[in-house]
Amino acid sequence: MSSKTILVVDDEEDILELLDYNLSKDGFRVVRAATGEKALELAKSERPDLIVLDLMLPGVDGLDVCKLIRAERSTSSIPIVMLTAKGGEADIVLGLELGADDYVTKPFSPRVLTARIRSALRRRQSAAPDEGAPVRIGGIEIDTGRHEVIVDGKPVKLTFTEYEILSFLAKRPGWVFTRYQIVEAVRGEEYAVTDRSVDVQIVGLRKKLGKHGDRIETVRGVGYRFREPVDDDA
User: Of 3.30.1780.10, 1.20.272.10, 3.10.450.50, 1.10.10.10, which CATH number belongs to 135-233?
Assistant: First the structure.
């Protein structure tokens, strides 16, 4: 992973210096931005392997930066680790809902942040184009090679986390998984996430799948499953 490019975005020069020093020491190439506007510019020009993004930025704030990065085709798949002093559950859920892959609160340990960055990069690498044949279930096609989802013949834009949850459930139709099992499979055991954030991702997925959204079934008191196909689903 050394030689991977990390875009760090923070309006505090001390934080930028700290991140630059520690990530460079670990072999990463670091690109820095102190504003949301600069972050968006560098995300397009540098195409970093991952972005560490502060929320409270002058001008375009971190949440808007996240939304704009996810909305742009050329940058939509870049992993985003949010780094912020806003550590309330509502803030974490909102960040994840908007497409963040991880969330680290200030004050933070540089070693822990680096571990989270490596974990996010491993997850993205493990999802790269060698996962096998496409998954096709009644109007939904998951191209595991291209990391794309097609619904009724039309491409659907999903965040990285939404894609991973859909892929995980759809590959095991009929199996029931707890929220913790979903989090563990998608993010790894080290990721601290609430049950609520899984629910938020599922709500977003159902909306994007349209009439096929009800394939993701809630199993009360347990978790979720992807409904097995029946003859009239073909």
Answer: 1.10.10.10
Radius of gyration of the chain (CA): 18
Q: Which amino acid is at 90?
A: A
Strand ordering across the sheet containing 223-226: 176-178, 223-226, 216-219
CA distance 53 to 55: 6
| Residue 188 pLDDT | 54
* Pairing of β 50-53 and β 80-84: parallel
Q: At what angle do helices 89-97 and 195-209 cross, to 10 degrees?
A: 30
Distances (CA, A) of 72 to 11, 38, 40, 159: 23, 15, 10, 12
Beta strand 223-226 with 5-9 is: unpaired
Amino acid at 157: K
- Helix 195-209 vs helix 179-187: crossing angle, to nearest 10: 80
pLDDT at residue 221 in the model? 80
Q: Note the pLDDT tens digit of each residue in 22-71.
A: 999 999 999 999 999 999 999 999 999 999 999 889 889 999 999 899 88
In angstroms, the CA 50 to CA 73 distance is: 15
Q: Which CATH number fits domain 5-126: 1.10.3720.10, 3.40.50.2300, 2.60.40.1120, 3.40.50.10420?
A: 3.40.50.2300
Identify the band that residue 202 occupies on the pLDDT scale cut at 50, 70 and 90: very high
